[in-house]
């Protein structure tokens, strides 16, 4: 994690400022001056910019996940397990896991100001739509950790989407895709993973297209989704390198869904 060395070295005050910097400071156990505000340059991303974006993504992901888990009044074991699975996928070491857990716990606090977190994250992400979308997909997964989307969780999720500039249509599309991917994941736990384990309904939901879409529209949607979730591209936009496994698994599911639709339709490519 390219930003990690600076964070633990005490230089994170220059790495990430504002409310997110304060959260990261508390999670690390350091004192922090909230006065510094990092601002990206006009389109040119330096190494320092990239490290700040990575720190913002990490900090926002786990703190908001904790806030979502508490939205319905209690944090379930399933929600804790979901956070642990994300940490496991990221292959965090003991020190990094401790910070992620601390951030999750900070998000559960009554004085957690989610709007300040989301405003700064959106500012740091600097119109990197694919990066923010990956963050949102992780949060939707977290909200469905216990298999249900409670009213308070849905209300909070929709608020998170709006704060990051996403529409109700975006919300419904991403929620539908995440639900389909979770169905696929549960099937793969019971069977040998293959495209045949996907229902047609889930295959179309993962692809984000209707059954009556043309072959051309199906191909276009596939290319768009693969581009949005390409691990290397997401890392180049500021996703922490440790999250590459999460993005890779999503591309596998997108490809499996596309392969099934191609087979059903008799598409050549």
Provide the fold topology:
Elements: H1 4-8, H2 12-15, H3 18-28, H4 47-69, H5 77-89, H6 94-107, H7 114-125, H8 129-143, H9 151-163, H10 168-190, H11 200-207, H12 215-229, H13 231-237, H14 244-265
Give a structural overview:
This protein is an all-alpha fold and 269 residues long. It has two domains: 1-164, no CATH class; 167-269, no CATH class. It is 69% helix and 0% strand. It contains 14 helices and no strands. It has helices at residues 4-8, 12-15, 18-28, 47-69, 77-89, 94-107, 114-125, 129-143, 151-163, 168-190, 200-207, 215-229, 231-237, 244-265. α3 (18-28) packs across α4 (47-69), α4 (47-69) crosses α6 and α11 (200-207) crosses α14.
Considering DSSP H and I runs of 4 or more, what fraction of the residues is helical? 55-70%
General shape: globular
The number of distinct helices, counting runs of at least 4 residues, comes to 14
| Through-space gap between termini | 38 Å
Q: What kind of assembly state do the chains in view correspond to?
A: single chain
Domain tally: 2
DSSP strand tally: 0
Give the helices and strands as they follow along the chain. Answer: HHHHHHHHHHHHHH
Low-confidence stretches: 34-44, 187-196
Overall structural class, as computed from helix and strand content, comes to mainly alpha
């Amino acid at each position: 994690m390219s930003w990690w060395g600076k964070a633990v070295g005490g230089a994170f005050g220059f790495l990430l400022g504002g409310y997110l910097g304060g959260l990261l400071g508390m999670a690390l156990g350091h004192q922090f001056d909230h006065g510094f505000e990092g601002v990206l340059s006009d389109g040119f991303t330096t190494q320092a910019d990239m490290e700040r974006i990575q720190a913002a993504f990490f900090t926002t992901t786990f703190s908001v996940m904790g806030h979502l888990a508490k939205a319905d009044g209690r944090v379930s074991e399933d929600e804790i397990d979901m956070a642990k699975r994300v940490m496991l996928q990221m292959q965090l070491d003991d020190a990094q896991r401790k910070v992620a857990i601390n951030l999750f716990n900070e998000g559960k606090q009554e004085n957690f100001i989610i709007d300040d977190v989301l405003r700064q994250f959106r500012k740091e992400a600097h119109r990197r739509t694919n990066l923010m979308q990956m963050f949102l997909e992780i949060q939707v997964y977290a909200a469905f950790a216990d298999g249900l989307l409670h009213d308070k969780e849905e209300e909070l999720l929709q608020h998170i989407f709006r704060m990051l500039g996403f529409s109700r249509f975006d919300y419904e599309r991403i929620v539908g895709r995440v639900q389909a991917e979770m169905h696929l994941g549960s099937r793969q736990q019971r069977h040998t993973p293959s495209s045949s384990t996907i229902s047609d309904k889930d295959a179309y939901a993962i692809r984000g297209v209707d059954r009556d879409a043309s072959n051309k529209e199906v191909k276009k949607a596939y290319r768009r989704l693969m581009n949005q979730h390409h691990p290397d591209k997401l890392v180049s936009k500021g996703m922490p390198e440790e999250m590459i496994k999460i993005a890779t698994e999503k591309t596998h599911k997108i490809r499996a869904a596309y392969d099934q639709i191609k087979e059903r339709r008799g598409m050549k490519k």
